[in-house]
């Protein structure tokens, strides 16, 4: 099952534009093989970093936090360190996968649950992408098309879910479906990665086979929050939709592209695997004596993500420099 799952995953990561047989992946130069990862096949119970448990159904396979991050590193998919697990499918479940992340900014107040203004939030996303587009070439630009699913909060489960629709400069549709499961001192981000054509079908599969089988462990439940001892976050539900931790930084260093926990998660995964395979195939061409002009240049999506990553590093550096300056300013002592 492991080989089928990884072959299916690579197909998804290539956004269904490259049908690469598993034999090509397996023969590409790499320090890791499929057997190097500790795959757990369903049915079984698995634990997500002691924050939640999951009943893994038959037909799905699981990687824990360490293996998920290592797998992403090996495919140059830029893990952010918050990943606590991932699920991959085979057979009829092969055209989607799920990444789990855990963030602990503190207990998140859900008092704005009845004030989630979908239109205003969409405008905020559009402004962010428009500003980013001004910094990139036309081929690298991305465009918000609207909500696939408007922001919704389930008070009984403490689930915040939404899906934003986008298109790239080549008019290819992308899907980003997020479910934030609020916990005692943070939230579990559950991210469904799929293609647009199969989104509705895969959303149902995801909700039936994954989300309904996910349980926050005792001691970490949202309702177990104790204000006298637990950390409390300044973030609300609106902040999570606009980018989570990015909002806290924005208060200090100005306007950010508030999509760090949004569609760039998807782009990072897709571009990472595509870039990895591209590099391996290019290297093989060179070794076979083909002309250097056969080397494939980075795609617009790859360039866009690389620019975004560089921008994030610049923002973090600016934030760090601002904080250092503030600490050294004698007028603030």
Automatic annotation (TrEMBL):
* Keyword list, A-Z: Membrane, Signal, Transmembrane, Transmembrane helix
Pfam families from the UniProt entry: DUF2167
Q: Which InterPro entries match?
A: DUF2167_membr
Where are the residues of the annotated region Disordered?
285-333
Q: Which residues form the signal peptide?
A: 1-28
Regions of biased composition (Basic and acidic residues) lie at: 314-333
Q: Where are the transmembrane segments?
A: 255-277
Entry protein name: Membrane-anchored protein
User: What species was this sequence derived from?
Assistant: Paenibacillus amylolyticus
